[in-house]
Amino acid sequence: MAKPILVDNQKKHYYYMDILNIMATMAVLWLHTSEYAFEYKPHDPSWYISLIIQVVFIWAVPIFFMISGANLLNYRDRYDTKTFFKKRMLRVLLPFIFWSFIWYAWNHFVMHQDNWSIKGFINGIEYDTIQPIFWFFYFVIPIYIAMPFLSVLATKANKKVVTYIITLYVIGVGIINYGYMLLQRTPDQMVNNVPLVLSTGVGIFFIGWYLHTFEITKKVRYWLYAGTGLSIIFMILTTIVLSAIRGETVRDVYSVFSIGGFFIPLGIWAWTQHRFDITWQPSAKVATWLRKLSGVSLGVYVIHEFLIMIIEHVFSLSASSWVHLFILPLIVWLLSVIMILILQRIPVVKRLLP
C-alpha cells in the first residue's frame, strides 16, 4: 500500500503543510459563518446552502490534528521530551489559558452572560463553557500529554502497529460510536473501555503522521478522493433526511468523529500533498508568505469570533444572508490575519499569539 518517503524530515520544509494550515484556518471561518444550518428551516434555501458549507468544510479541525501528528509524533528526532513540553506549553497551553480569560471577560462585560469570579473562570476552563470553539484545545492538549509514549509507537518499524491503531479508530470511533450517536444511544461498556483509540481522537493524529511518513500509491490516492466525495454526499443527504424526521438539524451526522469526518480530510490531505509535493519549491517571496500565513493560524482561531460578532452587530447582518455565508468569512480571515501579524510584532503579545 505504501512505502517510506526517503527524505530527511529534520531538514526539509514541507510547504504543503503550510498550505493545509492556511486552508484549514479559512475552512474554520466558513464553518463559523454558516451556523444558520443549526436552525432547522427546511423551506429556506439558505438553510440547505449553509448545511452544504458545514459539511464541505468539516475537515478543518481534523486537518489541524493531522498536521500536529505529522510534526510532533517524531519530535524525538529533533529534541528531548523536556523541550517538547516547554514548546507545547508556550505555544498552546499559555495561549489557551490567556484567551479563555479574555473570552470569559468578554462574556461577562460585553455579552452579560457569566458571573465574574475566579471560581466561575476555573469552572469554565474545567467544563469548556467559556468559548465553544475552544473544544479543539480539549482534544489536542491530552494528546500532547500522551505524546512521550505515543511517539515511541510512531516509527517506521512500527508501521503495522500504527496501522492497527488507525484501523481500531476507524472501526471504534468512525463506525461504532458514530452509529450509536445517530441512533441516539449511549455506547456500550466494551466500547467505552478502549480509551487509547476511542476517547481522544488519537487516530487522526496517527493518520497525519502516516500519510506524511509513507508515500501512498496513485490508486490509494484516488480511493481517498472517492471517499471524500462519497462522504460529503452521504452526510448532506443523511442530515437532510434525519433532520426532516426529527424536526431539527441533526448536527451529529457530519461530526468530525464519524466515518465521513475521517475520510474527508484524508482526501484533502492527499490532494494537497500530491499537488505540492516535496519537489515543489515556491519563490522566496511566496515561501515567506506561506510561512507567515501558516504561522497565524492559532491566532486567527482564537480571535475570529470577536470579529464575527462585531461585524454582525454593526451591520445588522442576518446569518441567513449570502453576504454572511460567502463574503463574511473572507473579510474576517483577512482582518484576523492583519491583526495577528501586527500583534506578533509586540514581544510580550507575540507569546500569546504564537
UniProtKB/TrEMBL annotation:
The keyword rRNA-binding belongs to this UniProt entry's keyword annotation: no
Gene Ontology terms for molecular function: acyltransferase activity
Record's bilayer topology term: Multi-pass membrane protein
Keywords for the protein's UniProt record, in alphabetical order: Acyltransferase, Cell membrane, Membrane, Transferase, Transmembrane, Transmembrane helix
Domain named Acyltransferase: residues: 15-341
UniProt similarity note: Belongs to the acyltransferase 3 family.
Protein name, UniProt field: Acyltransferase
UniProt organism field: Weissella sagaensis
